[in-house]
Amino acid sequence: xxxxxxxxxxxxxxxxxxxxxxxxxxxxxxxxxxxxxxxxxxxxxxxxxxxxxxxxxxxxxxxxxxxxxxxxxxxxxxxxxxxxxxxxxxxxxxxxxxxxxxxxxxxxxxxxxxxxxxxxxxxxxxxxxxxxxxxxxxxxxxxxxxxxxxxxxxxxxxxxxxxxxxxxxxxxxxxxxxxxxxxxxxxxxxxxxxxxxxxxxxxxxxxxxxxxxxxxxxxxxxxxxxxxxxxxxxxxxxxxxxxxxxxxxxxxxxxxxxxxxxxxxxxxxxxxxxxxxxxxxxxxxxxxxxxxxxxxxxxxx
Length: 301
What we know:
- The structure is a single chain.
- By secondary structure, the chain is of the alpha/beta class.
- It folds into two domains: 6-93, Winged helix-like DNA-binding domain superfamily/Winged helix DNA-binding domain (Arc Repressor Mutant, subunit A); 108-300, 3-Layer(aba) Sandwich (Rossmann fold).
- Helix content is 59%, strand content 8%.
- It contains 14 helices and five strands.
- It has a five-stranded parallel β-sheet with strand order 2-1-3-4-5, sandwiched between helices.
- Helix 10 (162-176) packs parallel to helix 13.
- The chain starts with 11 loop residues before the first helix and ends with a helix.
């Protein structure tokens, strides 16, 4: 068996192989029992290791921050940031996420036909929706809707399959209030779009594992500019949560080959409905103007 060299550690798989080598007594590197336990805890919860500060992780693991720094140095890194970068790459790249999802679907078929698979997916989505509704903080939902109703401008940012949810939210908000759009609706680039936002504006960001790096960065940049950030994501310790003023965790456990979307869609509808409630007669007037315009255009639509 070839031992994993600390100087070549670059992925979560590398760390897991190193742990196996250490337990088997292979290689030149030696770590004490407590250090091995800490490394095992980090690799066992890569998302937490990716998004937590060194101080927070130390508290959770029952060690001092200097212990994490020394462990990182023993593994060949200059400091903890080098070790943490492995976990951050893991949660943003997720190289095998989609194929792994399909593999689990195939493994669980047990003779299911198309209707049987649809039924299983339906049950999973129902569970996601139930868990999401049960975990939502009603006051946070009201605050988020109020921010969306009162902001000067609202921009929504999601990539990959969340681009469709971005479009839906922008369309729905646009029916109720002016100046709501996808972040880069003009096609001038994310940097240009972010530069136009300030403390009177709201940015809604949407992403789930494997997180889209550009969405994470946009949220962080917007937060530094004083823009209110509302995050729709998958777990409470998502990387998006660090930059968000309001964060909603949406369970998406499913055998679908990508992120399950039904609970995300329900939350979006709930937010839009609450915005309509917050706007009251102003929202009704906006919808009436749209209806009048549709009637004016007629067949030209």
